[in-house]
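Predict both folds.
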Amino acid sequence: MDLSTFHPSRRELIRILLMGTCVSSAALAILNAASAKAAEPIVQGFQKVVGDVRLNKAPVQVGQVVRPGDICSTGAGSECIIIIGEHAFLLREHSEVEFEIEHFEQGHNTTITERIKILAGAVMSVFGKTQASISTPLATIGIRGTGIYIEVMKEKNYVCLCYGQAEIQSTLNAAVTKKLNTFHHEEPQNLYANPNAHNGLFIEPEKMINHMDEELIMLEALVGRIPLFGPEPIQMPAGK
């Protein structure tokens, strides 16, 4: 990642977080300074590439830009971070995402509609104040300006709206919908491939699993923002 284009405060924050260190009080102070620089240009493309990461089946390099219709995949023990417009994505191992993006944001003040397919794996995303539609094998999720974590498994899809607003619709039964309005991971959901094995339920509440506030803080910092819940991780209540 070429850090030369970043303001020093943002540059140091990204260096700390992309190295995978914990968010210290010093890093949080840097985050506050970086958030004041939100008007600065956002570096596009792959920000971090670990292991076997491919774009349209070809190996990728840091700095490579994603285009509409591109498909990104990660192999075993691999992950990547991608910036598109004012949105950031973290793909974990064994993930596959198709970026069906109609337009990229290039500094113009228009409402951009995003269409993204998560075909496999686990993906965390943070979005600017634009409408987006995320589809998985079992769900269509309409969102606007949110942080969201999704896991696609054979028997179920897991969706945690980390903060913001969204509406989930089952792809197996269009009449099954659920509106969410969250501040801090309050309403994770499972969507089932076989509702008959779950008392006829297509969708059911779940607990928060497999993702952290620190990851959301890092992704938002890359696009000059802080999460809705603020610049510091929140201690989850017992049992969450």
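Second protein follows, with its predicted structure tokens after the sequence.
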Amino acid sequence: MQKHCGLMRAAIDKYNMIEEGDRIAVGVSGGKDSLALLKGLSEISRYYPKPYTLTALVIDPCFEGTETDYAPIENFCKDNHIECVIKRTELAKIVFETRKESNPCSLCATMRRGILHKLAKEHGCNKLALGHHSDDAAETFLMNLLQGGSIACFRPVTYLTESDLYVIRPMIFCDEAKIESLSKRYQFPVVKSRCPVDKKTERERTGELISELSNRFPDLKAKLLGALQRGGISGW
């Protein structure tokens, strides 16, 4: 946990993600990444020189028309003295039944972001932390290049003018494999996604491509991230 928090703090300090008095909403899906983010921010808050507070926001898409049991997440937050807010939605119904999207992930992500932004403001938060890690950054960079012909990635810090909210990504220096190990070691209460296209997305395929290419080009992921930083791409 100490090393994980060290990498998170390095990103926080490098990109000035946190200021004194910040009220930070943490998007919690129930997966290992968002729980590692929540736990890391909770641990760092104990000694960080700029005091801040946390609120966990859980968006339930209600797959198959039923509410997801997030009791393990609620207990996790209670044990770590973090406020937990669960928002039940009709996301799944809209995406898979009403709209019948051929690319459901895009619409779902857009709608989920909108709900998160609104919920964060409703609970008095000025920042929203998301659990994207270094693997996500490398995949996003490559997806934008191969599919859109653009050299871009998500930003470490983004200011949303329409909602007056900062989005921060404190885990961009953290490796997914190490997050997986951390989750198992500390027995994070992962709530498995019931999404019908889980693990079948373009991002999953891009991750597999990076793994394949890494056999020919060692440290490919690190090189992609290095290119983002050296080129100052997307605020990196």
